[in-house]
Amino acid sequence: MTGITQLIRAKRDGEEHSPEEIRWIVEGAASGSIADYQLSAWLMAVYFSGMTPTETATLTAAMCASGARLDLSRVDRPIVDKHSTGGVGDKVSLVLAPIVASCGIAVPMISGRGLGHTGGTVDKLESIPGFVAEMPLAAIRAQVEEIGIALAAQTPELVPADRRLYALRDVTATVESLPLITASILSKKLAEDIDALVMDVKCGRGAFMRSLDDARALAASIRSVSDANGVRCSTLITAMDAPLGRRIGNWLEVCEAVRMLRGEEEPPLLTEVTLSLAGACIVAGGMAATLNEGIERARLAITDGSAYRLFLDVVRRQGGDVAAVEHAQEPAPTEVVLADESGIVNGIDALRLGMLGIDLGAGRRALDDTIAPQAGIILYRHIGEEVERGEPLCGVVEARMGVKVDPAALRACFTIGGETPEESRAVLEVELASPRS
Questions:
Q1: Structural domains in the chain?
Q2: Which entry of 188, 189, 216, 223 is annotated as an active-site residue?
Q3: What is the DSSP string of 375-431?
């Protein structure tokens, strides 16, 4: 086998790695036999020279094979999961997973923690008193077999090569590499033993992919590599310029998700994204023929109460306080930010709000930062809504002693104009995989 120095040089010069060479690099990343500085040099070479679709598919499969896999061979339902590239106020998974599972599809949703301005599903779940997201693979498998759903954190056994490579990408400015993004996302999802994946590619100021062209490129890469590894993949490109829903912060978002599952609230953009993604999952699982039919089935799972009941069952089985969810109470804001002019909200800067939420304790800048579960921001006005001077724009829930956010900084996240903006589109593009046969 050629040594790592030769492989770095080859990729630097734009040459294509063989499958054996890629597998050797991944094995070295997982075992520690390749030094950090050498892996970092290889990652930078990939960043500048890229990878062919075949290389990316091989890298994904090798990373998936670097650890244990979730064995769901005894599950007698179609197995579908959803993944998002991350956004602000994105509590879609909390609503979507029980909806899809209540429609007869298994959803082994293994999620991550938030980093930077994007929130993490696991952080939101762990804001429920007593909720245990860190489950052994055997417990995840048993719960999916029994009730068709688990909401869990990634375990140490799954895809260890990705943990090391991702940590190095984060400190070597190589996060934005399309093949490395694709392999990182898909290796973890393929390890769940799924039949199909629905991918939510966020696009906009508050997203990792700022332009529609970049979002399309990532969606196409994920579809191609997923298909090459035997998993059908649908992609939806969704807008992330403004926050999804009216709550930013872990417990606040759980409360909003609970109200949605009960059918008490339908925040327009959040509802459109959630139902569209859920509908795509239902189509991928063979329980609907078209996206519209899938969306209607998703709506029915809310109106008949089946999705909410299943969510409560998951909370109970994973140690959470069911009563705290059933009687979910939001903390009162410690400060209310008022508008300094009258008009119509034309824009809300999701990225800036997300970063201000971190200052409050609702997120983390480094993986070992401590989350304040109650902290966050409540939006009293959203896109297209009128506000008078002196009326509330947003509320702040401060959960860290001595932490203050400048009201002017929050106020600056809202753009107020004299005209009603064009109606916002939450779902920009859809590419559905063929239904399960």
A1: 4-50 (1.20.970.10), 80-326+426-431 (3.40.1030.10), 335-417 (3.90.1170.30)
A2: 188
A3: -EEEES--TT-EE-TTSEEEEEE--STT----HHHHHTTEEEESSPPPPPPSEEEEE
